[in-house]
């Protein structure tokens, strides 16, 4: 790998725009071809972003210059499409989740390992300077020994803005598998592997109605919990409580708080690459009424970009023969945590998480996505 890495896309839906905008600005990668079931959409996106070729998914797999496939297909075929890319001799970067079941996703990772190929999995927001600055503060002991975390993502649901939201309430989705990856990936990157989980969930209604677009008024079934609360026990001893809900009239998203023996730290929204990092120290003492606590702001360090950062880290890691941050193993463990939470909500019992992941490596503060290193 002594020149820019050739990249091909399979799936060019709405999220492809931000990927293409960012990847086209990184000197270490070069987007060569876009493929989609809708070849006209692939052509339109290729023209819009200056990509030299377009066609079908097979055209991407057959392209001799493509070394990494970006899998932006629907979650139900993530594992299948990624497996096809591995079989074609390509590394894979896939949108979350890695898959929808343990069996096919574990088989994918085994296939990649046998082929000597890498798998990376969104979200890569954990590589952004927001989460990484917070991670460095925890590592240097700013809040002492981390004890527990609280996270929350709640609002009234995607039907208020999405013209076709039914798939977000189907098996393999819901707020847990749709938004949970951002929060659990962040917690695992800070605390390490989850040992066991307990969860409770509910469906506010059996069906919901689309509120915007040409299909407004049409109803669709709700197949999974639309609100779920998850209790996590980490192998290192910390605990966490996480709420994900599509039922809350009160919109409150991006809440990640880490509480330790010497302070409490606010971490930025894990669905973003940047944000506020601040902490408070415990009181020494106070009288009848505690005084207002002073927030100590932490300057964010690092270059802010967006989606595609994890892919860039992966291709540099291949050249440098080091682990990449948003790995397939991390994606699998987060999927295992979420599936275990679903099982706990159904059974009413704690569920042991069978998988684990090694220490998630940090991103150096001087990581420059706009540098040419290959």
TrEMBL record:
<keyword id="KW-0520">NAD</keyword>
<feature type="domain" description="GFO/IDH/MocA-like oxidoreductase">
    <location>
        <begin position="131"/>
        <end position="266"/>
    </location>
</feature>
<dbReference type="Pfam" id="PF01408">
    <property type="entry name" value="GFO_IDH_MocA"/>
</dbReference>
<dbReference type="InterPro" id="IPR055170">
    <property type="entry name" value="GFO_IDH_MocA-like_dom"/>
</dbReference>
<feature type="domain" description="Gfo/Idh/MocA-like oxidoreductase N-terminal">
    <location>
        <begin position="5"/>
        <end position="119"/>
    </location>
</feature>
<dbReference type="InterPro" id="IPR000683">
    <property type="entry name" value="Gfo/Idh/MocA-like_OxRdtase_N"/>
</dbReference>
<protein>
    <submittedName>
        <fullName>Gfo/Idh/MocA family protein</fullName>
    </submittedName>
</protein>
<dbReference type="InterPro" id="IPR036291">
    <property type="entry name" value="NAD(P)-bd_dom_sf"/>
</dbReference>
<dbReference type="Pfam" id="PF22725">
    <property type="entry name" value="GFO_IDH_MocA_C3"/>
</dbReference>
<dbReference type="InterPro" id="IPR050463">
    <property type="entry name" value="Gfo/Idh/MocA_oxidrdct_glycsds"/>
</dbReference>
<keyword id="KW-0560">Oxidoreductase</keyword>
């Amino acid at each position: 790998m002594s020149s820019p890495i050739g990249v091909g896309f399979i799936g060019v839906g709405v999220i492809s725009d931000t990927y293409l905008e960012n990847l086209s600005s990184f000197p270490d990668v070069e987007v060569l071809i876009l493929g989609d079931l809708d070849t006209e959409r692939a052509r339109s996106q290729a023209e819009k972003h200056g990509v030299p070729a377009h066609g079908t998914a097979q055209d991407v797999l057959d392209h001799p210059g493509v070394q990494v496939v970006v899998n932006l297909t629907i979650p139900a075929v993530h594992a299948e499409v990624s497996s096809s890319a591995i079989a074609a001799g390509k590394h894979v970067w896939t949108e979350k989740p890695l898959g929808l079941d343990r069996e096919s996703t574990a088989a994918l990772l085994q296939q990649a390992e046998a082929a000597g190929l890498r798998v990376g999995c969104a979200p890569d927001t954990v590589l952004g300077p927001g989460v990484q600055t917070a991670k460095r503060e925890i590592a240097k002991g700013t809040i002492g020994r981390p004890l527990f975390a609280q996270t929350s993502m709640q609002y009234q649901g995607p039907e208020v803005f999405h013209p076709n939201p039914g798939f977000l309430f189907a098996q393999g989705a819901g707020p847990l598998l749709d938004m949970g990856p951002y929060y659990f990936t962040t917690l695992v990157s800070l605390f390490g592997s989850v040992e066991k989980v307990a969860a409770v969930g509910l469906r506010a209604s059996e069906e919901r109605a689309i509120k915007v677009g040409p299909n407004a008024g049409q109803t669709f079934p709700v197949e999974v919990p639309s609100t779920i609360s998850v209790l996590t026990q980490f192998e290192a001893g910390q605990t966490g409580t996480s709420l994900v809900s599509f039922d809350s009239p009160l919109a409150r998203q991006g809440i990640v708080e880490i509480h330790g023996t010497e302070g409490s730290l606010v971490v930025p929204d894990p669905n973003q690459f940047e944000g506020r990092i601040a902490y408070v120290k415990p009181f020494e003492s106070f009288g009848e009424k505690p005084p207002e606590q002073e927030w100590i702001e932490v300057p964010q360090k690092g270059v802010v970009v967006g989606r595609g950062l994890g892919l860039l880290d992966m291709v540099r890691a291949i050249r440098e023969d080091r682990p990449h941050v948003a790995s397939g193993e991390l994606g699998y463990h987060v999927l295992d945590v979420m599936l275990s939470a679903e099982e706990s909500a159904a059974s009413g019992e704690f569920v042991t998480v069978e998988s684990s992941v090694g220490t998630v490596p940090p991103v150096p503060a001087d990581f420059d996505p706009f540098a040419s290193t290959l």
